[in-house]
């Protein structure tokens, strides 16, 4: 049975910069993209592909998820790096992508914001932002 390996945000960033066919797929909701921010891939000559895994506000799984990947021109040859807030939804999205014929799926460990710190805030302990990787407000 295929599995979706966890890969650190720093390793993801290096893969995105080195491999022209590598794609970062942000599976958070539109509200998260707008209010929390997005990975900034301009230095890699790319933009994240924004495809929600769950649809806000019902948070039902996006039944057209794999179709969105195909419509974006992705193929089984692409290396797909899935990112969410903390690495949970992105793991599910990666597993679904593998089941739909995308074998090279990776989960960005700790996601964009990572776990909460002692004060209950995200973005400081682990994840894309905490690792100091480029990001921007939408």
Automatic annotation (TrEMBL):
PROSITE patterns for this protein: RHODANESE_3
Domain Rhodanese intervals: 18-124
Domain of life: Bacteria
Record protein name field: Rhodanese-like domain-containing protein
Protein's organism: Dankookia rubra
């Amino acid at each position: 049975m295929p599995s979706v390996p966890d890969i650190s945000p720093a390793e993801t960033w290096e893969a995105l910069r080195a491999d022209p066919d590598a794609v970062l797929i942000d599976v958070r909701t539109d509200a998260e993209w707008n209010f929390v921010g997005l990975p900034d891939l301009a230095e890699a000559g790319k933009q994240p592909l924004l495809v929600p895994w769950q649809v806000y506000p019902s948070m039902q799984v996006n039944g057209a998820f794999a179709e969105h990947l195909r419509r974006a021109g992705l193929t089984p040859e692409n290396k797909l790096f899935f990112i969410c807030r903390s690495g949970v939804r992105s793991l599910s999205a990666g597993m679904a992508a593998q089941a739909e014929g995308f074998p090279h799926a990776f989960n960005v460990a700790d996601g964009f914001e990572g776990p909460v710190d002692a004060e209950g805030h995200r973005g400081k302990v682990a994840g894309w932002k905490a690792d100091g990787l480029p990001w921007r407000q939408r």
